[in-house]
TrEMBL record:
Entry GO terms, CC: cytoplasm
Organism: marine sediment metagenome
Name the record gives this protein: RCC1 repeat-containing protein
InterPro entries tied to this protein: RCC1/BLIP-II (IPR009091), Reg_chr_condens (IPR000408), Ub-ligase/GTPase-reg (IPR051709)
Keyword check for Repeat: yes
PROSITE patterns: RCC1_3
Keywords in alphabetical order: Repeat
């Protein structure tokens, strides 16, 4: 839990010991609304009930940038911004958390190599940053410096961002992917890039999706796992290597899996 810093930097800081003692606390106790004795909303007033503690609800790491969803659905990003992946309308790097304008009610965030995508509480999705492989899903290959809605997407439950591709799980368990597809990482049976969300045939009852640099894995509600895409090092887990898969391929011997992640 972090406090807004009103001392000239638009960043965040952990409470200092004097601040903790000033609230009548010891150690790192954080009872609800204990922040009200500080001017956390920077309006010059203390103990006004407006400066509640800020909690990070979700965080995502790209290759050189980071984004965090705060309580209430606001989004902050920082780091490398050459492609506009911080979503603040510029290409200037940011050394501290910077608000993403015009974006609220964010439920989940995903960061690829140089792009970022957010799922909103109403099930819509927006993406921004590098788009040279169509990874933003807006039907173009033009990079965007601000959040751009992904047309046709609704009821999104979770989103994952790989190097230059993106995948979304819908509330009903179906999956769509878009962006780079050189090694079949979109799972549609082809190696053709897609600039708009494209359904992954044969997938249903998916609970979570994970996107690596060039491969993708899905976790099913029953605990099984399937993977597809680049397999030079055996990262698809099917007992082979070197033979890339363009469609979801079950990972043998796995069951009751609770979480999945994909690396580079």
């Amino acid at each position: 839990q972090l406090f807004k810093d009103c001392l000239g930097s638009a960043g965040w800081h952990e409470p200092t010991q004097p601040e903790i003692e000033g609230m009548g606390l010891s150690g790192y106790e954080y009872p609800e609304a204990t922040c009200d004795n500080l001017d956390n909303d920077c309006n010059g007033l203390t103990d006004d009930g407006l400066g509640a503690c800020v909690t990070v609800e979700d965080i995502a790491l790209g290759e050189r940038h980071t984004c965090a969803v705060l309580t209430g659905g606001t989004l902050y990003c920082w780091g490398y911004n050459w492609y506009g992946q911080l979503g603040d309308g510029t290409t200037d790097d940011k050394l501290s958390p910077t608000p993403v304008p015009g974006l609220g009610d964010v439920a989940q965030i995903a960061a690829g190599e140089h792009h970022t995508c957010a799922v909103l509480t109403d099930g819509a999705a927006s993406c921004w940053g590098s788009n040279w492989k169509g990874q933003l899903g807006d039907g173009t290959i033009v990079s965007k410096y601000s959040p751009t809605p992904v047309p046709g997407l609704g009821d999104v439950a979770q989103i994952a961002a790989g190097r230059w591709h993106t995948c979304a799980v819908f509330t009903g368990g179906a999956v769509s992917c878009w962006g780079e597809n050189e090694y079949g990482q979109l799972g549609d049976g082809t190696t053709v890039d897609k600039h708009s969300p494209t359904p992954v045939p044969g997938l249903g009852n998916v609970a979570r999706i994970a996107a690596g640099k060039l491969h993708t894995c899905a976790l099913f509600t029953g605990g099984a796992v399937s993977c597809w895409g680049y397999n030079y090092y055996g990262q698809l887990g099917d007992g082979t290597y070197g033979n890339h898969k363009t469609s979801p391929t079950p990972v043998p011997g796995l069951g009751a899996v609770a979480q999945i992640a994909a690396g580079s």
